[in-house]
Amino acid sequence: xxxxxxxxxxxxxxxxxxxxxxxxxxxxxxxxxxxxxxxxxxxxxxxxxxxxxxxxxxxxxxxxxxxxxxxxxxxxxxxxxxxxxxxxxxxxxxxxxxxxxxxxxxxxxxxxxxxxxxxxxxxxxxxxxxxxxxxxxxxxxxxxxxxxxxxxxxxxxxxxxxxxxxxxxxxxxxxxxxxxxxxxxxxxxxxxxxxxxxxxxxxxxxxxxxxxxxxxxxxxxxxxxxxxxxxxxxxxxxxxxxxxxxxxxxxxxxxxxxxxxxxxxxxxxxxxxxxxxxxxxxxxxxxxxxxxxxxxxxxxxxxxxxxxxxxxxxxxxxxxxxxxxxxxxxxxxxxxxxxxxxxxxxxxxxxxxxxxxxxxxxxxxxxxxxxxxxxxxxxxxxxxxxxxxxxxxxxxxxxxxxxxxxxxxxxxxxxxxxxxxxxxxxxxxxxxxxxxxxxxxxxxxxxxxxxxxxxxxxxxxxxxxxxxxxxxxxxxxxxxxxxxxxxxxxxxxxxxxxxxxxxxxxxxxxxxxxxxxxxxxxxxxxxxxxxxxxxxxxxxxxxxxxxxxxxxxxxxxxxxxxxxxxxxxxxxxxxxxxxxxxxxxxxxxxxxxxxxxxxxxxxxxxxxxxxxxxxxxxxxxxxxxxxxxxxxxxxxxxxxxxxxxxxxxxxxxxxxxxxxxxxxxxxxxxxxxxxxxxxxxxxxxxxxxxxxxxxxxxxxxxxxxxxxxxxxxxxxxxxxxxxxxxxxxxxxxxxxxxxxxxxxxxxxxxxxxxxxxxxxxxxxxxxxxxxxxxxxxxxxxxxxxxxxxxxxxxxxxxxxxxxxxxxxxxxxxxxxxxxxxxxxxxxxxxxxxxxx
Length: 836
Fold this sequence. Notes:
836 residues, mainly alpha, 434 Repressor (Amino-terminal Domain), Rossmann fold, three-stranded antiparallel β-sheet, 41 helices, 65% helix, NB-ARC, Cro/C1-type_HTH, TPR_rpt
């Protein structure tokens, strides 16, 4: 009897009834009645409080609770029918879901707590996620909480022939050996008989693969002594008080643990890398991992890497994840065939487009319907767990398919859609994306501009898919679209979207990987189709990519290829734009005479063609080169012309960079006041554009003027912020430029040691970029730091090396040797500095 157990536990703990009452929060009278057998069936919360008061844990606590559950009046025990267990067997290698199981058990163990509601837990998730396995596992673990049985019924809610509630109740009553079940004919009569039968029992009911509220509601017991676990693809809406848990893919560690259970630790440890790849190829879906493990277990001669190699081919992956008629494909097919026709087509076309993630506008374009209608379709796909919500961007939900689902969707598309229909749908989606990208493309401070805007099939433009700038937050999808267009032979779309992305995303935010991938894919499509004009434009894009990556020699190569292709194709405009581009690469390499040659040639051609954007870029390049060569009047003239031209065409970034260039002329001449005015003016313009990256360059120019004017404290935070942003944008040239300026700041403060620290970092980057002129400028500063430290020998060495480079490039610094010496207090023989 529970009273005897309680008394023994209390005495063993050395407690009086009064002390236990105080520690548990119960009354002394209640404890006396329990020990004397006057209360034979204590409430669950009473037992819990007593266990807490007795400080019981682990097995002792479980035994104490079980002794309370086992307590029954003799007549009740005599009348109680034998337990009914129709649960499937538990899974011996069950792994993971610890948090969800804890929540389930806590909820389902509350049946004796205050309240009269039946505890219900629902598990919702996609096919193959192991919902049934979890439900059965928990039901077995709770057998002592539900001693009268555990019942299981597959409702087939996602299949074509779901079990009607009437039939389900008949099965449950039969399992309960309810003899009066046959006389109950109507649904209401069966519900009443079912609930009466369970009223005196503690039974846990598992309703597997439920289809919805109408199917489930009649199957819920009425007595709180029972509990219910429901599994379904979509959450069952409308059930009051239910706790719904989302069952998702396993963690990688749990997936590996499951695989280890199946194939053994020795085999898995022979190639842990292959095992990790295998569970990733299985999407960490329990069903897929279990099938893969079973296949390996049945083929002991296979290393894990063998199955990995077979599964890498997406077209074979679902074939590999099959055991007889049982597999991932058949599991997904149940959800697919439960969709309406519009849902099926959306599923197929999304799989064929193959995006990593997408917005409703993408589905709208594929289906040629408004976005609102596409959102309704995607909601149905989400309910079927064939897509999932991942985030909201700009007020719109984004979606994705898991890899195995996407592969199955693509199979369905290739089997059920004609090649023409599926290609047209994809072309429509990519065209709409192109329109959105073009709408937000920006003027960049570069020498090239968009060169490829072909006429497209009018049928691809027929639908207003409601696209907007939110697409630009989906760079992976846009990159995938270029690659898909290339694979489908849509060369014009591939080239146009790849180029447009440079001016909307890649060039603005230095997204080098996407830039490289899209241009590689589009180049392949252009080559295959013989699209020479698209290919030439892409060479310009590759030249600009290498320029932005600070790979200037490679940039020259691509711009030259573009010049050759445009010339061969009779496109003088493209040739002139590429000529401007190659001029910028020569300029950054310190090859200013060649830069002038190319920029002058480009200006003449672009002026004749009326391309005033290109003319402005050429004028800036000419002014930049003259400034480096010390031709200050010519430099100022061309930079002023460039600023006016940029202003006239509304190119704010270009205007700011040209004005900054004028400020640099004044700074080089130690004309600090006008230098600050021009640099400040450029900085204000960039502030209005919101361009954080370009702002680093105007900030650096302004900070350097402040350093020259002794305001180092004002410059320091500005430079440190610019350094951080340049690093975020992978701008190595910008990083080195700011590092050098920070070194100059410490030099101005007389801190030679700190100056050398920062200058050495800048020098490492200049050498890696092969920028000899910038190396020379930093060598000059390093020499100055040694002079400040009274180490004239090293100062002379660095100044001599710098002078050699300056003279080779014929820059303005070649005539500034005496100025350096005077600035840093060196009074040595000047000839010593030029012995090299």
